[in-house]
Amino acid sequence: MTDISRKTKKIGIFAIANSADPEKLAVGVKNFEEYTGMEVLPYSVTSPGPRHFSSDDVHRAKEFNDLLYNPEVSGLVAIRGGYGVTRVLEQIDFEALRRKDCFLCGYSDITALLLVAWKHGCRKLIHGPMIQSSWANDPSSQAFQIEAETFLNIQGKGNRTKDSYDNLKEPNKQPGKTTQVIEPYTLLSCPTLLKSAYSHYPVACNLIPMNLTLLCALLGTPFLPDLTGTILALEDISEPAHDIDRKLNQLRQAGILKRLAGLIFGQFTNAEDAEFLPEIRKEYAEFVPGPVIENFPFGHCHPSVTLPFGDPVDMDQWLPKTGE
Question: Which of 12, 93, 164, 188, by CA, is between 20 and 30 Å from 67?
């Protein structure tokens, strides 16, 4: 458990997509508060709305906006993903989120919210663990500790450009506490360089970690920002290889791949016909002018390292050094 000596942060949690499981949510809140030292503000769990949404579109957007208007809230963490965020984007007060300048954390369906927030000038965005999907897991497991520690490292540091991947070798140490050293390569997949290439962009470019399905869902809409010169990191779950191919081809035809500074392939969990994924990744890597990394440990997997959303990063920091 990590002690936080500074003033306790008060966290607003939200279900802007599918409905929460009350029992798992309660466990997740307890684990989150005990591990981080942050306080989750009072919340309510409503009966599932239409098609397993947490409520109808209007109420989901209103509940999120109400957290933005609450002066007590100093951070926002999604309860879970699922489906439904893209339906309410028009109703979100992104200007209020930008003014509030608090951190916002989530993944999966929540990446649509993160991407549009980044387009509106919001910062302190985090691709990281959600209350029910991650914090409700076994807190004694190494996977839980990796996710929790990388979240704390990304959320709590003033300099977010250095990801906490390397820092797993030196977890936060507190006086009088015995802290287990987490070796990063025992549980985390080891990223490898799929394609080495010179980039016309600066060494450090803005990192955009996205769910592939959600990114493609925003193509052709006014919510998609210009991704030119960014490092795009992609992951997905339960998508067959042919659908991953189709969506990557959509990014190619939309002209996005050729404008990237770099590309990172994360985990494509539970993919049908997964044996075809290596050749698919290799094929689409050729359309990216910059370097491409594969097998990065983020996505719908446990553990999944927390990543800063929209911050400048150097891709080289994630590759094993020569001789490792």
Answer: 164
By residue count, the chain amounts to 324
> Strand, helix or coil at 209?
strand
Q: How far apart are CA 150 and CA 161, in angstroms?
A: 13
Distances (CA, A) of 316 to 75, 275, 278: 30, 27, 21
As a whole number of angstroms, the distance between CA 112 and CA 285 comes to 23
Of 92, 82, 136, the C-alpha closest to 114 is 92
Short-list 126, 118, 191, 198, CA closest to 155: 126
User: From CA 147, how far away is CA 155, in angstroms rounded?
Assistant: 12
Q: Which of 25-29, 99-103, 157-161, 184-188 has the lowest mean pLDDT?
A: 157-161
Q: Are 132 and 125 contacting, i.e. CB atoms less than 8 angstroms apart? A: no
Name residues whose C-beta falls within 8 Å of residue 249's C-beta, 6 or more positions apart in sequence. Answer: 284
Cα atoms in the 13 Å half-sphere on the side-chain side of 111: 28
| Cα three-residue angle 259-296-145, rounded to 5 degrees | 135
CB 165 within 8 A of CB 207: no
Q: Please, are residues 127 and 121 in contact by the beta-carbon 8 Å criterion? A: no
Report the distance separating Cα 288 and Cα 133, nearest Å.
32
**Residue 157 pLDDT level (bands cut at 50, 70, 90):** low
pLDDT digits (tens, 9 = 90+) for 28-69: 999 999 999 999 999 987 777 788 899 999 999 999 999 999
In angstroms, the Cα distances linking 248 to 11, 193, 234, 254, 258 are: 36, 19, 10, 10, 12
Mean pLDDT of the chain: 88
The CA distance from 197 to 261, in Å, is 10
How many Å apart are CA 58 and CA 302, to the nearest integer? 33
Token pair in block for residue 38: 């942050």
Give this prediction's pTM: 0.90
